[in-house]
Please model this.
Amino acid sequence: MMEEKEEQSDLRLKEEEEKEEQEEEDSFRLHMVTWNVATADPPDDVTSLLHLNSPKSPDLYVIGLQEVYSGPVRFMSDALFDDPWSQLFMSTLAPLNYVKVSSIRMQGLLLLFFSKLEHVPFIRDIRATYTRTGILGYWGNKGGVSVRLSFYGHTICFLNCHLAAHMKYATERVDEFEYIISTQTFDCKKAQTVLDHRLVFWFGDLNFRIQDHGMHFVRTCINDQKYNLLWSKDQLTTLKKKEEMLQEFEEGPLDFQPTYKFDRNTDIYDSRRYRTWFSFNGKKRKPAWTDRILWRLRPAASPPKEQDESDVGLDVRELRQLEEDEEYPLKVRQEFYTSIMEYSVSDHKPVIGIFTLVLRKIQTTPLVRLQPEGDWSADIDSMVLYSPLQPFPSSTWDWIGLYKVGFTSVSDYITYTWVKDDEVAFNEEVIQVYVDKEEIPVQGGDCLLCYYCSTLQSIIGVSEPFKVHESKVAIEEGLLPEKINGLDQTVAREDVWN
Model:
């Protein structure tokens, strides 16, 4: 009898431990940047901007730029290749094991989303869109670009905006924001609009100014670091008290220098006179916190007992949302919010916000497990083995990519193979996919495999790193790869040295 009680007690204890493990919350560090770069080329180093020397490395980087140079020649080349700013961030972060998961550009507006490789299989349902609010709503110099995704099952949307300029257009800026919010939609069941998302970050050059106070008072407050004396006249702070939609967004204290407007290549606020139609009698720009980062946690759905009696049939979607919010909590804590004054290529200073996301994971298992079969080299055809771990919307457009360790983005593959076209054999548990030896790098190297799901527009499985061996045939025949990845062309070694 005692033994049975002990067994039951042990069983209950084990169940409680398993439940605690399941209910455990995880913390993720998010580093956000907003910077109006005023058509400038990127600086040589972004260590301070990305806090690369910090002992706490972020899990995610989200970088929103405005006024990236988009002259006709540059814009055409950027359409074919990554722009200089994207190249800089990718080349900086890839060696640290970050991958550019998504990006979107609309003329001068650019939004980049990076993640540590370990999180990539849990970033799903990626969608990106844009809204123009420039000249007559047709020009993309102003507006918003957004990336939405599911992060361990929690829906998050990042919205980078560049709103109307000048002091007198404060209400127009709010109108533009509301227009962007109302028009952007996503082909996703759980969150079809921006505000449907569990968490929204709204950031960019929002262009709100400091009203009423004169230039001398504003600059004196800045010099004395008495920023709080300016807060009550900040247009966004004022409008948040009146506009219901803005009240749902939170922002940390503006306890840093206003980020606009500076003389380029200096830390001096605007000292130039501006040419008007008839003379040089234009006013200097008054400093302002134009560059901001705000966030919004979706308000909790009302429980059934609080619903009006006439509204007997509680919306099923709201009920599911309520249950999910309770079972899988998500909290946001801002750790840092400041301007980075050392960068002077633009007339704006960049602003960074560092956040901790505390959440209970809804998704804990990758959708696919994959691995190479046997040794890989360019001398023999190879096989990939993959196993679906959960149901997912596979299609004929799914592919498996071979990547070098330290790859920069989803498109930075060495080669790829279509999953359905190159299937060799399969059963319910393991599927084999063929890779032609001609597609494997002759030089070899440390690689990994990624399964890309076209429907979810994301990588849903990543293999462990493995070694692709140098081609013995190429070595014996004295062939040397012409390209670093060893694809396509080789030249005879003696031709190189002659």
About this structure: The longest helix spans residues 2-22. The chain has twelve helices and 23 strands.
